[in-house]
């Protein structure tokens, strides 16, 4: 059994419990439903419409439960990390491009790197680490600061909107890759971190990077210049 299985089991049990409640409600109210259906026209079209509406309602409810479970899991992971690490804990939004580029840098990891839809990322005096899991976080990948070549702010197109992206250039095992990291906004209903909070994270990471390199006697990289803006024809792809 892999580490993610207990979470899947809990999610399946939660969905099954909800389905059981819906079925029980239908059974208990069957007499009332029969009287209601008897008042309906004999044309089968309303029956079909009611069935479609019921199916959509159940699907939406199940999806809402899944989203709530994901959010609760992410909150539990963040609290656990904030209680156990001394660095900055941020929320990251998974993209296909990020996953692909992380796997380009996989050297000693035995399995393919995967991330939760809303994973956590920690920057501290040791480097940058990507985390999955819930109350018991699991580190998916870690980059010590000596492997980080550059940190810069950029932007990308996601669903027709421009979002801020932190680009982390890492060199490992002879491979140099830029990791596009979308930082998630903490407020419910918001998507990506932007404006002053986003640039505060960028500055914090840059400061930790330079301090760590100086502590090891390594010359820090030059300060980056103006932040370029990616237009629609130059946008990153693969966000989801």
Order of helices and strands: HHHEHEEEEEEH
Enter the CATH topology name of the largest domain: PH-domain like
Number of helices: 5
Classified by CATH, the class of the largest domain is: Mainly Beta
Poorly predicted spans: 1-9, 225-240
Q: Give the second-level CATH assignment, the architecture of the largest domain.
A: Roll
Query: Which structural class best describes the helix and strand composition?
Result: alpha+beta
> What's the CATH H-level homologous superfamily of the largest domain?
Pleckstrin-homology domain (PH domain)/Phosphotyrosine-binding domain (PTB)
Q: What amount of the residues lies in strands?
A: 15-25%
Calculate the mean pLDDT score and round it: 77
Strand order, biggest sheet? 4-3-2-1-7-6-5
Number of DSSP-assigned strands? 7
Brief summary:
With 240 residues, the protein is α+β, with helices and mostly antiparallel strands.
Write a concise keyword list for the protein shown above.
5 helices; disordered C terminus; 2 domains; 240 residues; alpha+beta; seven-stranded antiparallel β-sheet; PH-domain like; disordered N terminus; single chain
Mind explaining what this structure looks like?
The chain has 240 residues and is of the alpha+beta class. It has 2 domains: 5-77, no CATH class; 86-234, Pleckstrin-homology domain (PH domain)/Phosphotyrosine-binding domain (PTB) (PH-domain like, Roll). Helices cover 44% and strands 24% of the residues. It is built from 5 helices and 7 strands, in the order H-H-H-E-H-E-E-E-E-E-E-H. The chain has helices spanning 5-28, 30-39, 44-84, 96-104, 195-215; strands at 88-93, 118-124, 127-132, 138-144, 148-158, 161-172, 175-183. A 7-stranded antiparallel sheet has the order 4-3-2-1-7-6-5, with helices on both faces. Strand 6 and strand 7 form a beta hairpin. Helix 1 runs antiparallel to helix 3. The protein is elongated, with a radius of gyration of 23 Å.
